[in-house]
UniProtKB/TrEMBL annotation:
Keyword check for Amino-acid biosynthesis: no
One Pfam family it belongs to: HTH_24
Domain called HTH asnC-type: residue spans: 3-64
Keyword DNA-binding annotated: yes
Official protein name in the record: Transcriptional regulator, AsnC family
GO BP annotations listed: regulation of DNA-templated transcription; response to amino acid
GO CC annotations on file: cytosol
Annotated PROSITE patterns: HTH_ASNC_2
Entry's Gene Ontology molecular function annotations: sequence-specific DNA binding
Keyword terms, alphabetized: DNA-binding, Transcription, Transcription regulation
Classification via InterPro entries: ArsR-like_HTH, AsnC-type_HTH_dom, Dimeric_a/b-barrel, Tscrpt_reg_AsnC-like, Tscrpt_reg_AsnC/Lrp_C, WH-like_DNA-bd_sf, WH_DNA-bd_sf
Length: 157
């Protein structure tokens, strides 16, 4: 899909305010509501917009411990990796799972839990019990310096 300046503006604005009305969106990009809505639907149907979500405050929900976990696997077969990924998908505390290179690890997980006891439970009774996991290295997040969900679109025009 070829994106023009209106499409990029729509995407940029929606990343900041996914609840904006079509009228307000149209006003902000200097289009009338009807073509603005057509463009929005085209962006959704193309798969560029994958959904709309509410962002929650983890600490206010009692989830005050965030950790990054590097996971090493014993074998790199599609079956072993597929099994690991399927098991990780079942763990609600896992916010992100990345297959990585450049480390002495195969995966990086970002997890959020209530406290260190909950982390110990997650690590010892869930993650290390997944078949093929041979090593874990945990780092704990002290403070989020940059915490964005918006993709940089300024260079796409």
């Amino acid at each position: 899909m070829q994106l023009d300046r209106y499409d990029l503006q729509i995407l940029e604005i929606l990343q900041q305010d996914g609840r904006i009305s079509n009228q307000d969106l149209a006003d902000r990009i200097s289009l009338t509501p009807s073509p603005c809505l057509r463009r929005l639907h085209a962006l959704e149907e193309s798969g560029l917009i994958t959904g709309y979500r509410a962002l929650l405050d983890a600490k206010k929900l009692g989830l005050s411990l965030m950790a990054l976990i590097l996971i090493s696997m014993d074998r790199h077969t599609p079956e072993r990796l597929g099994n690991f990924e399927a098991k990780v998908l079942e763990i609600p505390d896992v916010l992100e799972c990345l297959l990585i290179t450049g480390q002495d690890a195969d995966y990086q997980l970002k997890v959020v839990v209530k406290d260190m006891d909950a982390y110990q439970e997650l690590l010892l009774n869930r993650i290390t019990r997944i078949e093929g996991v041979t090593g874990v290295h945990s780092s704990f997040v002290l403070r989020r310096v940059v915490d964005k969900t918006a993709l940089p679109l300024g260079t796409q025009a």
